[in-house]
Write a structure and sequence with these properties.
By secondary structure, the protein is an alpha/beta fold. The protein has 15 helices and eleven strands. Strand 1 and strand 2 form a beta hairpin. Helix 7 (231-249) packs across helix 8, helix 7 (231-249) crosses helix 11 and helix 9 packs across helix 11 (320-335).
């Protein structure tokens, strides 16, 4: 889940939950949901066992008897089999080992709660792919990639663990998840309250994926996070797009930009300029998502407070070539902080791997996030939300059209009055907080707001540079979990 841009087809280098460079050709309105994340897989910091469980491909029909092997990770070294709870991570759109190694909060509190840890992989991601890689070429087989089927997988898996693990039969289950996984954690409690006692839904933008969502809220939040670091930085970025166009239109202007940005392949057409803009815009979005108070490598190797670092060369009014060079330095913070990248490949050719294909399909069925920029309250070029062109792109790519109303029907939209035992946590630096639940809905559906937090910062492991607000958020979350278990 991430950025977007431009009414014409553009090629955007982005970063993928599947740990690879992925480059996508998409129309502007077809893109935010299609963006991928490049994650650096760190060495495993935690000890767990890898298991597999045979899941039905179709939980809601009786004709298809096919099954697939769902991967899950299990850690029982902290668990008290005499009443200890199960902490269950609802896997996102990617390899489950990534989330296992980047959800340190679960590992940090497991000894205190004497919990059994389970990290379940989402169907069609990682190694848990029904029908194998060929499924992505067959719409009839992709038809089983839905959030509903994934939640049913989790419910069935928990039943299996409880019936086959001595001592787990009476264990209460708390669900954890971040981003799309956070959405699943919340919906898991709502759809299967008999299975899960409560849920921590971190950075779960469940209201982004509604037809009446404010389509420019995402870009506004990106802009405000940058503004917090430097108002001049925002003004410079806002002016950058016109400056790039002016330079590109000059004689040898595209060659000049290619040299200034150290591109591996020179820009040759104005469509390539759109690709360059998309590449820059994606970095600006990801910088806000991982604006952590300490160095991290979740999306890429980055310094502490990377938005501030990217804004330093743009912190005074600039114009012309000086503005472009400031942007080049800002891009180096995200794409080349280690200084080991000789040139930048903004992408013209690539085949997306299985992970991005999976999310691409989901964003063309249930997960539609209206996306636009007004160019006034945000620092991006103006662009409109066009659901018709979005649907046409989906039909061309996947032979399906999205149902923008289905999530509200299936998961209650903004009416959470019947829900219970859910924590919605959001960091206000994170652009996805614009679609999150920021106000407490009831005594048991509570909002935890982290003013200086980025994307699911509270789910990350404790760090000596954590801000006081995320430390307080984790303590409050522990209190609610304790309440639910008691």
């Amino acid at each position: 889940m991430a950025a977007h841009r431009n009414l014409f087809s553009i090629v955007v280098l982005s970063l993928c939950l599947c740990f690879a460079h992925c480059i996508l050709v998409r129309t502007k309105n077809f893109q935010r949901n299609k963006e991928v994340f490049r994650f650096y897989r760190p060495p495993s910091e935690y000890n767990y066992k890898t298991e597999y469980f045979a899941q039905k491909v179709d939980h809601f029909g009786f004709h298809n008897k096919d099954s697939y092997q769902q991967r899950y990770l299990i850690a029982d070294q902290f668990w008290d089999p005499n009443g200890g709870p199960i902490f269950f991570y609802t896997g996102n759109e990617g390899d489950i080992t990534l989330f296992c190694n980047n959800t340190g909060f679960m590992w940090d509190i497991a000894p205190e709660f004497k919990a059994l840890l389970i990290f379940a992989e989402h169907r069609y991601y990682g190694t848990s792919v029904p029908y194998g890689p060929t499924a992505f070429k067959d719409p009839t087989k992709m038809n089983y990639l839905t959030s509903e089927q994934a939640l049913a997988d989790y419910a069935v898996l928990i039943k299996h663990i409880k019936t086959t693990t001595p001592g787990a039969g009476s264990s209460k289950v708390i669900a954890f998840g971040g981003s799309y996984g956070g959405m699943l954690a919340a919906w898991f409690r709502m759809k299967y309250p008999n299975v899960v006692q409560g849920s921590l839904a971190a950075s779960a933008p469940i209201w982004t994926f509604l037809e009446d969502a404010n389509c420019d809220a995402f870009d506004y939040t990106v802009t405000e996070t940058f503004r917090k670091s430097s108002p001049d930085c925002v003004n410079n970025i806002k002016a950058l797009w016109k400056t790039l166009g002016t330079t590109a239109s000059q004689a040898a202007g595209l060659s000049k930009l290619s040299e200034m940005f150290h591109l591996c392949k020179p820009l040759k057409t104005m469509d390539d300029l759109d690709a360059l803009k998309g590449w820059i815009q994606s970095a600006l979005v990801y910088l806000t998502m991982v604006d952590y108070p300490y160095p991290s490598s979740f999306l890429a190797p980055l310094p502490a407070w990377p938005v501030k670092a990217a804004c330093r060369p743009l912190s005074t009014p600039l114009s012309g070539d000086n503005l472009i060079m400031g942007a080049v330095k800002a891009m180096n913070v995200y794409f080349n902080y280690t200084g080991t990248t000789p040139c930048f490949d903004i992408g013209t050719e690539a085949t997306p791997d299985l992970g991005i294909r999976g999310w691409g399909y989901q964003s063309c069925t249930e997960m539609v996030a209206p996306s636009c920029s007004n160019g006034k309250t945000d620092m991006f070029e103006k662009s409109d939300w066009n659901f018709k062109s979005y649907s046409e792109g989906c039909l061309e790519t996947w032979k399906v059209k999205p149902d923008i109303d289905w999530l509200e029907t299936q998961y209650w939209g903004k009416n959470l009055s019947s829900a219970s035992n859910i924590i919605f946590s959001n960091g206000l630096l994170d652009p996805w907080s614009s679609g999150g639940v920021l106000k407490t809905q009831s005594d048991s559906v509570v909002a935890v707001v982290i003013p200086n937090g980025a994307h699911h910062l509270d789910l990350r492991g404790a760090n000596k540079k954590d801000t006081p607000d995320v430390i307080s958020a984790r303590e409050l979350e522990k209190k609610y979990i304790t309440k639910w278990l008691n």
